[in-house]
Specification:
The chain is built from 21 helices and 15 strands. By secondary structure, the chain is α/β, with parallel strands linked by helices. Bound molecules: 4-O-methyl-alpha-D-glucopyranuronic acid. GO terms for molecular function: alpha-glucuronidase activity; xylan alpha-1,2-glucuronosidase activity.
Length: 699
């Protein structure tokens, strides 16, 4: 039977290939969105003026990725090259990393010039041209100009020194710490190349739940080897620093940031790192959060801790990214309020080389969260956005969830201070901060396709593009990614972009509609667990978040509840104060409402919830059908993997729906609305599911 199916499929494909553009040959996804790997042959002429390792890479990329059919000679050159400066082009506004690509006359020849004020700018220009062509543009008339709006565009790897990756769903860590620094896997170069192609210019190598060992001499040498590989691609290396390292590897009795011996230890440590890595970026710190040590252990503030580290790296031009992800079980306050309560009073107290890194929402990378109230509340402090690219709460490796719309929803949110948006806080425009940054928790591992699935690559891609320019449109990013990844055939691109743009909302629908959040199972966070109530820390239990009882559901964060709404600027707080003016997509985040609360559609909240769960499942089923229709147009390997993943997703979307409804019914005693299918199993069955070996779970 299987052989028959294969045969039928093979002959169907042969016919299709004869009739249509043949799908690309076997593709294991390794090449990501950069799909040429052979130097172009034919009439294309590329010249390079000047010689640096990065300029050479720019030239090599063009040779490798531009189609031979490109019929205009291409010149890569620094803007300071006499042949370019003679053209008096408007290059000042390109800054340090921007590029300009345009037809020009050089030495009496018509060429396409790729230039920038630095060789990194030129490299980004080369990639912009490659992107332009791979998305259907022409070389001859290419006119492209862009400069990044955000200075630090950084991946955060939650990679452990033993090769495991916290919340990683795509294999082991790329970094082979054991064999470094002697063996430099060629894959490190390919990693850097992929990042450079989307503008990522920094990488934090190790988990924020850090081990002090990564700051010892052998590990500094290993990090230095990676930094050497990444440098020509414009990528700096950063390290997560464990705050108690002076005790653990320094032999000190304390890590109190106000103790001069501690400050001196960090200064010497920074000097040592910079001797090995002269362009080391700086430190990322998770302090006094989920058991990590920090300045609060000594009664000092987060600013004291950050500033002490900032002073150590400052002479070398380094920075500190200090995370605001803090909450404590000893604090009875609503978890969603705790970071603001702790950090807002510190505005203006941080050194000028510190960024405070804030997650997009106040809880933890849920499928939907309102923007974090710290954005707009700390005008004197550069706030760095932290997105999670790895899909800890959105179906991990297998569910198709394109995160572009999640990212842009937050970036476009109005903070309530005039026209200010979260994006304008992050890119510095709002308060004229020069030091700006965006971090993405990486979804990269040593799986052959890097991210555990083709569509997960789009989330890495979208992060890079939005870090470069937070005002980009998520559908446009999806389109350019899809064109580079699958080719420009509109019969493929239309459905692929459609699937991507519906996918995140589908996950919201089948995991937690109307602003419900944190309903997942314990530890690995895989699958549903809205019933979980027995964990030691109250705010680790889903029941803490949904507060469902016989009468209603949702977390009252208005004045009658935790008053978290008051952390937003008055214009936004006012909207969130009433269920009538709160967007329904965030309703139960802010309000505890009766099950028979009337939605704008006229149906009850309960009926609306059931409809959303059903809509989520139906959307995944529809995505599967769309993908089925692409069978003959996408290479077999990537098509089959995605098809299998979509089948998993549909099954698990039903599981989420059925388990959730079964539990809600056990609480509210309500029947399902007419026509809704009953859950497949009883609640006991859902509660009994256990996944002790699910990936990504910290141990
Ligand atoms: C690195 C969540 C994740 C943790 C992660 C933490 C953080 O709680 O589940 O694995 O730890 O966020 O962002 O620090």
């Amino acid at each position: 039977m299987k052989a028959m199916r294969t045969l039928v499929r093979a002959s169907a494909m042969a016919v299709t290939a004869a009739l249509l553009t043949a799908p690309a040959a076997a593709e294991d996804g390794y090449r990501l969105w950069l799909r040429s790997d052979a130097p172009a042959e034919g009439p294309i002429a590329i010249s390079r003026l000047g010689d640096t390792p990065t300029l050479r890479l720019a030239e090599a990329e063009l040779r490798r990725d531009l189609p031979a059919a490109a019929n205009l000679p291409v010149v890569v050159a620094l803007a300071s090259d006499p042949a370019v400066s003679a053209l008096r082009l408007p290059v000042a506004e390109l800054g340090n990393e921007g590029y300009l690509v345009r037809p020009s006359s050089i030495g009496g020849r018509q060429v396409l010039l790729i230039t920038g004020n630095t060789d990194r700018g030129v490299l980004y220009g080369a990639f912009a041209l490659i992107r332009h062509v791979a998305s259907g543009g022409q070389v001859a008339n290419a006119t492209l100009r862009s400069a990044p709006k955000v200075k630090l565009r950084v991946l955060n790897h939650w990679d452990n020194l033993d090769g495991t990756v916290e919340r990683g769903y795509s294999g082991e860590s790329l970094w082979d710490w054991w064999k470094l620094p002697d063996y430099r896997d060629p894959r490190y170069t390919d990693y850097a190349r992929a990042n450079a192609s989307i503008g990522v210019n920094g990488t934090v190598l190790n988990n924020v739940n850090a081990k002090a060992d990564s700051l010892t001499a052998p590990y500094i040498a290993k990090a230095a080897a990676l930094a050497d590989v990444f440098r020509p691609w414009g990528i700096r290396v950063y390290l997560s620093a464990r705050f108690s390292a002076p005790i653990e590897i320094g032999g000190l009795k304390t890590a109190d940031p106000r103790d001069p011996a501690v400050a001196a230890w960090w200064k010497a440590k920074a000097d040592e790192i910079y001797r090995a890595i002269p362009d080391f970026g700086g430190f990322l710190v998770k302090a006094n959060s989920e058991g990590q040590p920090g300045p609060r252990d000594y009664g000092a503030s987060h600013a004291d801790g950050a500033n002490m580290l900032a002073a150590a790296v400052k002479p070398h031009g380094g920075i500190v990214m200090w995370r605001a992800f803090v909450y404590a079980d000893t604090d009875p306050e609503d978890r969603a309020k705790q970071a603001y309560t702790e950090f807002k009073p510190l505005d203006g107290k941080f050194a000028d080389n510190v960024l405070v890194q804030v997650k997009n929402g106040a809880i933890d990378f849920q499928p939907r969260e309102p923007f974090h109230p710290l954005f707009g509340a700390m005008p004197k402090t550069p706030l760095m956005m932290e997105f999670q690219i790895t899909k800890e709460y959105l179906g991990q490796a297998t569910h198709l969830a394109y995160l572009g719309p999640l990212f842009t929803e937050v970036l476009e949110a109005k903070t309530g201070r005039g026209q200010e948006t979260v994006a304008s806080v992050v890119d510095g425009e709002s308060e004229n901060h020069q030091l700006t940054g965006m971090a993405g928790v990486a979804n990269i591992g040593d799986d052959r396709d890097w991210t555990g699935g083709t569509f997960n690559q789009a989330n890495w891609y979208a992060f890079g593009r939005l870090a470069w320019d937070p005002s980009l449109d998520s559908a446009a990013i999806a389109r350019e990614w899809a064109q580079q990844t699958f080719g420009t055939d509109p019969r493929v691109i239309g459905p692929v972009v459609d699937m991507m743009m519906r996918s995140r909302e589908a996950v919201v629908d089948y995991t937690g509609p109307f602003g419900l959040a944190h309903l997942m199972a314990t530890g690995h966070h895989y699958g549903p667990g809205p019933w979980v109530s027995e964990l030691q820390r109250p705010e680790w239990n889903p029941v803490y978040y949904h507060r469902a009882d016989r009468q209603g559901i949702g977390f009252d964060r208005t004045r009658t509840g935790s008053n978290a709404v008051a952390q937003y600027a008055p214009a936004v707080a006012k909207l969130y104060a009433s269920p009538r003016t709160t967007p329904e997509s965030e309703l139960l985040w802010f309000h505890h409402l009766p099950w028979d609360y009337r939605l704008k559609s006229g149906e009850t909240l309960w009926d609306g919830m059931v409809r959303r769960y059903d809509r989520g499942v139906a959307t995944v089923a529809a995505m599967r059908r769309e993908w089925d229709g692409l069978r003959a147009l996408v290479d077999t390997e990537r098509w089959e993997k995605t098809a299998a993943f979509l089948a998993i997703q549909e099954r698990e979307a039903r599981w989420w729906r059925d388990a959730s409804l079964s539990y809600w019914q056990s609480v509210n005693g309500l029947p399902l609305p007419a026509g809704a299918a009953p859950p497949e199993h009883d609640l006991a069955w859902y509660k009994a599911q256990s996944y002790p070996h699910a990936p990504g779970n910290p141990h």
